[in-house]
Design goal:
The chain is an alpha/beta fold. Helices cover 34% and strands 23% of the residues. It is globular.
């Protein structure tokens, strides 16, 4: 169920949504593995860097970044059960030790993190809510940027991507009103081309096949 909070203009995600009943194996992952890798914002494992992914979907980006960067702690937040199960399957099957998972709204975690806890954050292709009457439900807005500005260290990087031109515009409008972030773009290629260490997701691949332009924004915490 999705609800709007008129007070702070946040989209709240509730429930453990999935298409069908989990199998016995999937239930075991949720019962046994999820508590073991659940996020405790007050007691995070020591790591050379701590990264946060907001809405990791199928987990392709989260998992690959964890594999490439074993020295970093990857925190993934995702309200959908299907995506969480995919990540738990890989964590268990590959023995990944540097992933922590929150099955719920990222703001629940951001509000509990100590200031300056994060070295990097990602919000990759969030739900665009394309209908005009639903635009207020978009995740990337001034409320989220305020929480991220508190949680990110000075000099930390925030990466955001979308394949919806109107969403790209409203994202930039939100950042224009937030002086704690600096847009790193110096020319068109800085937002048209993927960063060199980019990990492409299945959703992004489908957007490319459909001919939709992708926008890649990189901001620094001032």
């Amino acid at each position: 169920m999705i609800e709007d909070d008129d007070h702070d203009h946040e989209l709240r995600s509730y429930g453990r949504r999935r298409g069908r009943k989990p199998s016995a194996r999937q239930e075991a992952l949720l019962r046994d593995v999820l508590p073991r890798v659940a996020v405790d914002p007050q007691s995070l494992p020591e790591a050379a860097a701590t990264w946060l992914e907001i809405g990791f979907g199928g987990g392709e980006h989260l998992l690959e970044q964890a594999r490439r960067n074993p020295q970093a702690l990857l925190i993934g937040c995702e309200p959908y059960e299907d995506g969480v199960i995919k990540v738990l399957t890989a964590v268990e099957g590959e023995g990944l030790k540097n992933i922590r998972v929150h099955m719920g709204d990222v703001r629940d975690i951001l509000r509990q993190l100590a200031p300056g806890s994060l070295d990097r954050a990602f919000a990759l292709f969030p739900d665009p809510w394309p209908k005009r009457k639903h635009r207020k439900r978009r995740l990337v807005n001034s409320s989220l940027l305020d929480l991220l500005a508190q949680a990110l260290k000075p000099g930390a990087e925030l990466r955001i991507a979308t394949d919806i031109g109107d969403y790209a515009r409203t994202m930039l409008e939100a950042f224009r009103l937030e002086p704690r972030f600096i847009w790193r773009a110096e020319g068109p290629d800085d937002w048209r081309l993927q960063p060199t260490d980019w990990v492409e997701t299945k959703y992004e691949s489908k957007a490319a096949e459909a001919g939709r332009r992708r926008y890649y924004f990189r901001f620094l915490r001032a």
